[in-house]
């Protein structure tokens, strides 16, 4: 009986209870009126009979016997029938009863009419308020259908109806989330296609040009070798671009399931910089790492790729004699891994854009890269519940901080 918790239903139920009480009171009043009417009929009949007996000079004792007699005999019924009094006698010929019947009929008619009007008004008010509520709900649901989820169904009451409204509101929230997810997915797809198209445009144009030069210089081995090398570089750049974009797309869509396990920090860092040691040596730069014996809960392959991208970015932006140091420390709640370099630092106008896809600073246009390494690293770290932050100032180098929650 949860409907009694609803305000309108509770009011209507109270109205019905009051209406039943009014009917009971009306019935009691009618009963009392009927008793009074029957008494009046009996008295009027006795008064008329007594008056007739007096006019016929009947002695008082005999008149009293007539008035108090309760015995019905066949002879008496026969005499009454002779003067037109029987069970078949029409009320028109019984003036006393006819008068009382008319009064009683008027009273019952007025009572019935008053009770009917009261019930009708109460029911109409209840149905009118309920219809207003339904119309409001229909209006809001139509807005949901049109994609407008800013409004909500009425929530001010309790009971089954408002629980239904709450369920519909929950459904609308789910539809809104789904709609936003689909919208974001479509926007992401458009942006991804646009980014890939834009980024592939340059290397594809270069490939076409190199192929034309190679075809035109077929008899010039040195030119063929030079532009074949450039062709290979363009293909490698395209391969890196497509691979990075596919990884970011998989991370953004949540299609990657990180397999997090406990790994030592030194193992993670060693794996991350292993493939960069030769490059650092060739460029005259130093790579080092140090830290206490600690473990990190992470996906080894993906996290090492994120660190590799950050270290590679540091190598790209440090000159000869450059130094990249990787250290780590543990606090009560997390382990922080620091990747610091002594490069030129990040300019203030570039600081808030370094994690944007394909962003290249004006000062780094002559350095290798496609502008996806740092965004990919950020997506990997945050996808595992970690945090990535950066501190830098022009001329003072840059420090990237990777924070991982520890097992509390």
Stretches where pLDDT is under 50 for at least 5 consecutive residues are: none
Number of helices, counting only DSSP H or I runs of 4 residues or more: 11
Oligomer: single chain
User: How many distinct beta strands?
Assistant: 7
Query: What is the mean predicted local confidence, pLDDT?
Result: 81
What is the C-alpha radius of gyration, as a whole number of Å?
Answer: 50 Å
- What string gives the helices and strands in order? HHHHHHEHHEEHEEHHEE
The CATH class of the largest domain is identified as Alpha Beta
The overall number of domains is: 3
- What is the percent of helical residues? 55-70%
Structural class of the secondary elements? alpha+beta
The name of the CATH architecture of the largest domain is 2-Layer Sandwich
In the CATH hierarchy, what is the superfamily of the largest domain? Histidine kinase-like ATPase, C-terminal domain
Strand content: 5-15%
* Dominant shape: rod-shaped
* Major sheet attributes: 5 strands, mixed
CATH topology name of the largest domain: Heat Shock Protein 90
Straight-line N-to-C gap: 48 Å
Strand line-up of the largest beta sheet:
2-4-5-7-6
Short description:
The chain has helices at residues 7-55, 60-68, 74-82, 95-145, 160-216, 221-252, 265-273, 277-282, 300-316, 348-351, 373-383, and strands at residues 261-264, 286-290, 295-298, 323-330, 334-341, 387-392, 398-405. The chain has 408 residues and is α+β, with helices and mostly antiparallel strands. A hairpin with a 5-residue loop joins strand 6 and strand 7 (398-405).
